[in-house]
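ok so i was messing around last nite and threw this chain in just to see what happens. nothing serious, just curious
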Amino acid sequence: MIETALLLTLVASALRATTPLLLAALGGMFSERAGVVNIGLEGIILFGALAAAVVARFAELPAITQNPQAVVAYAPWLGLLAAAVVGGVVGWLHAFISIRFKADQVISGTAINLMAIGLPAVILTGLYDNSSNSEPIRNRLPEWGVGAMSFSPLVYLAFVLVPVTYYVLFRTPFGLRLRAVGEHPEAADSVGVDVRRMRYYGVVISGVLAGLGGAYLSIGNLNQFISEMSGGRGFIALAALIFGKWHPLGVLGATLLFGAFEAAATLLGGSQLMPPTIVQSLPFILTMFVLAGFIGRSVAPRAIGKPFDK
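result:
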């Protein structure tokens, strides 16, 4: 009985750890399948997390002012919407710089990551006189399920999006056009596909999904935004995307692997077997070693990172 309970706890922890990675990696797949590198996933996760926590908190304030014990059920849902919108806007900004002005896509994404370090501190200082975290919200996103297997709606959404993403990319005209502009943009353009528009779509979808991944961190797993709370998950999502060969099932496997290692590290964190710093770094180290050792050579979309000249 104890072993079953421990296994369920470990599985639930792994699924929760996988969720923000899976959302960001699936988003990155839309962008990179369209031919645009999105190094900025890390920054978009942070912007989404900040937007979710701040908007959810402000949605609660009118009711709390009248009744200090009030709990506003719709507040986290507004925060979730805000995270998706802000993520999409930051994705559009990356697309605008990369596609309209043909800037180096890696530099544009890196700039977003740097903005996500400094800009939240400025916003938090202006709102809360605190540069490191937002005020806690009364209630985060609800959890659906039974016992240890109760999860935020975003956990269910992340795993449902795997078959949805597969269907969209490989079974719809939209997916065919998106993949075409990432492989052979000139050929796609010759048959009437608007290459730039399709690339905008891919990068904006990428931003929306990464923003939702950030919302999970701030109002799905915790109840506030904390500076740099993404903890490198955007970069791990990019690695999972590459090791998963830009395919939804491959991405699922790679992110689940990291989630399992992170759950195991959390379990080990309460023991004295290893120093805490080693325990915290284990998921990253083990994931990279396993994926690098067992996954064959990945072939990126042929036009990835290359500006399109009509």
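not much to say yet. The mean pLDDT is 90.
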